[in-house]
Amino acid sequence: MLVRDAMSTVVLTIGPAHTLRQAAALMSARRVGAAVVLDPDEGGLGILTERDILNSVGLGQSPDAERAHAHTTTDVVFAAPTWTLEEASLAMTHGGFRHLVVLDRGEPVGIVSVRDIIRCWAPLRQHAPA
């Protein structure tokens, strides 16, 4: 099975100046655990996850004052839609993260999460012979 078969095509994109509260509200409304952060000034893509927001709040930082750019991961590992789920899971395991931004021709077209992969693999394993 390929990443394109498992990924969510709902890609929430935010700017680096969004507050963490704004990012959390948008993520909650879209029911996603990560947002792609587009920074036109820096010319790159980053990712902000629910864990990034949780870590900030846990440190006592204000979600109304903290900006996405200060908590964005910018050394992102990107997946291609044609990667296998095994390749994606290995990249996640090796990197210690739970979300991969999926790029096609340099544009974000989806996000695949550990949960997406589990959803795909679980039905296959339920029917496997004992």
TrEMBL record:
Source taxon at top rank: Bacteria
Keyword RNA-binding recorded: no
All residue ranges annotated as the CBS domain in the record: 7-66, 72-129
InterPro entries hit by this protein: CBS_dom (IPR000644), CBS_dom_sf (IPR046342), Diverse_CBS-Domain (IPR051257)
Keywords: CBS domain
Gene3D superfamilies recorded: CBS-domain
Pfam families registered for this protein in UniProt: CBS
Record-linked SUPFAM superfamilies: CBS-domain pair
Protein name stated in the entry: CBS domain-containing protein
